[in-house]
Amino acid sequence: MKLVEGITYTHEHVTIDLSGIKKDDDCNLNCYEETLTEFKELKSKGVNNIIDVTNRGMGRNIEYMVNVSRETDMNILFSTGYYKEPFLPKEAYDLDEKHLSKLMVSEIINGIEGSKYKASIIGEIGTSKDKITEMEHKVFVAGALAHVETGTPIITHTTLGTLGLEQIDLFNEFKVDLNKVIISHVDLSGNLDYILRMIDRGVNVAFDTIGKENYQPDGLRIDFLKEICSRGLSDRVLLSMDITRKSNFRTRGGIGYAYLIDTFIPLMIEKGIKQKDIDKMTRSNIARILG
């Protein structure tokens, strides 16, 4: 799948199931009808692309996503890879880096789980809070090898924004093209200097937990984004919401997918962030990364 013209949400989960490990059914995002309703609304507001970063072991369901895409006319891009501990499937423990990489490459070149639908992204591959476990290191190596072979962009997960610089160090060991790397959830770090250091290293960063004010206030996110834009670095930033729970839907009391368009972007403009910078963060940057 390729991007189509329009706004892209660069880090989402059309469906995901982490409920087994978390012992919480709220983490089983299987709200089909509500997803259709909210995606149709997004389409009406200019959002034409969703990058789904649900991969092997996270409850990825290609048929579900294809049906959502067909019924809403939303362009959905799929991912391959493995998440982080404790959410890794048995195969991630049983196979070595080269075999895991071959599985990823096959999903990129041949298709996912025997389907005709191919992965456009390696991700989200993640690290734990303040540490990279042995298994997570293995997944990062496998992802790096698959990237080097195919040129496919990588989207990472940082737990509460930690260890982004360490992820970059690991990628550099394998000569990953950092222009094609997106370090996710950096807005959860609450540390602008740290985010700027990652950008300075050559990666892209994602403010992709917008609206989750129980972690960080959106006012702080906007202050950081304004400073980044003032330094001429908006071409290194992506925006998204990372909706993963039933309770995130508006019908269940959540903010809903349209919050980014309806509330957050108007606040950015009100605070003096220019439309040209917003267009980079929501449109052209991801087009460049996907190449």
Structure description:
The protein is of the alpha/beta class. It has one domain (about 5-290): Metal-dependent hydrolases (TIM Barrel). It is about 45% helix and about 15% strand. The chain is built from 11 helices and 10 strands. The strands form 2 sheets. An 8-stranded parallel β-sheet has the order 1-4-5-6-7-8-9-10. Strands 2-3 form a two-stranded antiparallel sheet. Helix 3 (about 60-70) links the parallel strand 4 (about 45-50) and strand 5 (about 75-80). Helix 2 (about 30-45) crosses helix 3 and helix 5 crosses helix 6. The longest helix is centred in the middle third of the chain and has 17 residues, at about 135-150. The chain is globular. The model has no long low-confidence stretch (mean pLDDT about 100).
In summary, what is this structure?
The protein is of the alpha/beta class and 291 residues long. Helices cover 43% and strands 16% of the residues.
Strand order in the largest sheet: 1-4-5-6-7-8-9-10
Counted beta strands: 10
By CATH's scheme, which homologous superfamily applies?
A: Metal-dependent hydrolases
Number of helices: 11
Largest sheet: 8 strands, parallel
Order of helices and strands: EEHEHEHEHHEHEHEHEHEHH
What's the structural domain tally?
1
Q: Can you tell me the CATH class?
A: Alpha Beta
Overall pLDDT, averaged? 98
Question: How do the helices and strands line up, and which of them pair or pack?
Answer:
Elements: E1 7-12, E2 16-17, H1 19-22, E3 28-29, H2 32-44, E4 47-52, H3 62-72, E5 75-80, H4 90-94, H5 97-109, E6 119-127, H6 134-150, E7 154-158, H7 164-173, E8 181-183, H8 192-201, E9 204-207, H9 218-230, E10 237-239, H10 259-270, H11 275-290
